[in-house]
Each structure stands twice: as C-alpha cells, then as structure tokens.
Amino acid sequence: MKGLPLQRRTLALIAVIVPLLALFIYVGLRSGPLAPVAVTVANVESRAITPALFGIGTVEARYTYQIGPTFAGRVGRLDVHVGDRVRAGQVLGEMEPVDLDDRVRSQGSAFKRAVAALSEAEARQVYAQAQARRYEQLFTVHTVSEELVTTKRQELQIANAALSAAREDVDRARADREGLVAQRSNLRLVSPVDAVVVARNADPGTTIVAGQAVVEVIDPKSLWINIRFDQISAAGLAAGLPARIALRSRAGASVEGHVLRVEPKADAITEETLAKATFDDLPEPMPPLGELTEVTVDLPALPAAPVIPNAAVRREGGKVGVWQLVDGALRFSPVVLGASDLDGFVQVREGLRSGDQIVTYSEKALTGRSRVKVVDQIAGVAE
Questions:
Q1: Are 362 and 353 in contact, with CB atoms under 8 Å apart?
Q2: Is the preceding peptide bond at 192 cis, omega within 30 degrees of 0?
Q3: Would the pTM count as exceeding 0.85?
Q4: 119-125 — which CB contacts under 8 Å span 24+ positions?
Q5: Contact, 303 vs 48, CB < 8 A?
C-alpha cells in the first residue's frame, strides 16, 4: 500500500514536467536560438537599368592669376577687395616707385643728349663727306696736293665712325629708357582678364618680394569640379557624359553639367579615378572655391537583363552570391555581377534567372541550415 502514494507523486510530477518541457521546446523553436530567422524576399526581375556613377568633388578654378610685382618693393595702394569683380586691364593697385620716376626722367634727359650728339655727328659726317669730295675734284686739276686729299679722306672716316658710335649711343639710351618705363609700368597691378578677386594677400605699406602675389583673381567662367570616383565602379566614365552637380550649400537642388575630361593619372593611394566636370550654366551666386559637391554621372542605358537588389548580395567563403529560396530551403548561389544603378539594383550576368526567389534582408546571419520565416518587413530595416 506504501507504493501507491509514491506512484501518485510520480505521476503528478510527470504531469507538471511534460507541459513545461513542451512549452520550453515550443518557445525554443518559435523565439529562441532554434527559432526560424525572419527574412524578406524578392524575385529576380529582367529589366533595363540606367547605371550611374557617384563621386565627391570640390569646386576649383581652372585659371587662377596671382598678380604681384616683378621686383621687391612696398605696396603703395590697393583699390580692390575680396569678392570684387574686375575687368581685363583694370588697375587693381600700385607699388611705390621709390626713385624710379627720377631715374626715368634722368634717362629721358640722357636720351635727348644722345639724340643731340647724333645730330651733331651727322652734320660733321656730311661736312667731312663734302670736303673729301671737293678736294678730290681739286686734286684732279692739280690744285691741291695728294697729302691734303688723304687728310680729308681720313677726316671722313673719323666722322663716319663717330656717326656710328652716336647712333649706338642713341639706341642704348632708348633701350635704357624703355626698360625703366617698363619697370615703372610693372609697378601697376593689372588684371589680365575679367575676373573675381578671391584673395588679398597684402595691404598698403606691406613690403613684397619679387614674385609674391599681392592679389589673386580667378576667371569665374573657368570654374570646374574636381571629382573622385571609386576605381571599382568607374567603368564607362568618359568625357562628354551628362552630370548632375549638387552643391553642399544648396541642399535639394542640383545643377546640370558634363564631364570635361578623365584624368590620365589616378590616385594610387586612395584607389580613385580623377575627373573634371564643368557647369553648363554658371550658378548665381558663384559657388565658393573648395565647396564640396556630390556629382552623379549618368551612363548610357543597358539592355534588359536579370537584376537584383544590392542588399541581397552576400559574401560566403570568399565567393559573392545570394541566398536563394528553393522549395522553402536555403541555398547559397554564387553569382557574377554586372553594372549597377543608384537605385540599389545590380545586373546578374551568371548564377540566377528571372523569377528566382532570393533573400534581400535577414534578421541575422544565415547559414545553409538556417530555418527561415518570410515576412513583409523586418523591424529596424528600411526597405
């Protein structure tokens, strides 16, 4: 009779444990580590895509002019400020001439003296030539001696030599004067083109060395974008392609442009391809130099082919592929990818066909043994 209460207690314990065990298994299979992984799926579609390249660039000036003196001096005046628009040939400022004006006047006087000396030498040469001709005529009629004729000929040679020296003195004085005048004109800081002042590196009274820029101007028509593209996705980039340029200071608006050229030298450190793009119409107001831009280059449209979302691409065991659902089971399918667009789609050259079902997003990392549950959207993941 003692075994009966023991059996009852055993049965009661089993009655409690079995439901708990069943509940544990149920919870483990539904929400624990053995629960199916929530995934979203998509079907492989065959359609045409328009690939595009995206790059980051900066606004730069193709032509920059640094205006300064050709020799050391002190800034006398400066008539422009940063942001001013100037015309070609406009005087922006001037260096102090110091004693250059006095030297120009002195050289002008020297030039006048040389011209006067040349006039005197020409007169002496004409007189000596006339005398030599006259004495030669007198010698033919035996009126004067041969020695006197020889003397007149020597005087003519001396006059000719003096005339040549006087002409050289005039040329030298003229060259010296023109050199000083050129130096004086170089003291004026003149804009070579219609431009915008972007830097003022000195103020009146500042001493400047030869070659140092006092004012820096740019041609606003020469603005372009220096762009960097990832070399992996830069296939098809070429001059002439249309581009949409989004200036950082003008969020939500883009400016039309085109690729001017692709640089023949890439950046080996950052593994980027460099290119230049220009505006079709210069924005107003002019964007500042150095402003960051986002540039989208449209490539020619491609013919229809199987495409998948970029989000579905995975790398497993060194291979690129996607998780494919076949009869409710997971299978990793290696693929060969082609061009992609900026809408998040990429062409599949090999590995999938139109209509195949693939996993786009998953709650956690998948394996070949994972159990999955298809849902419309995973919490925290934006479709």
A1: no
A2: no
A3: no
A4: 120/166, 121/159, 121/162, 121/163, 121/165, 121/166, 121/167, 122/163, 122/166, 124/159, 124/162, 124/163, 125/156, 125/159, 125/160, 125/162, 125/163
A5: yes
Name the residue among 56, 67, 127 with its Cα closest to residue 95: 67
| Per-residue pLDDT tens over the stretch 179-209 | 777 777 778 888 999 999 999 998 898 888 8
The pair phi, psi for residue 170, each rounded to 5°, is -65, -45
Rounded Cα gap, residues 150 and 156, in angstroms? 10
Amino acid identity at 367: T
Could you give the CA distance from residue 213 to residue 84 in angstroms, rounded to a whole number?
17
Q: What is the CA angle 161-166-170, rounded to 5?
A: 150
Six-digit token string for 164: 């040549």
pLDDT digits (tens, 9 = 90+) for 282-308: 888 888 899 999 999 988 888 888 888
d(CA 162, CA 26): 125
- Output the six-digit token pair for 51: 């690939």
Spatial distance between the Cα atoms of 269 and 228, rounded to a whole number of angstroms: 12
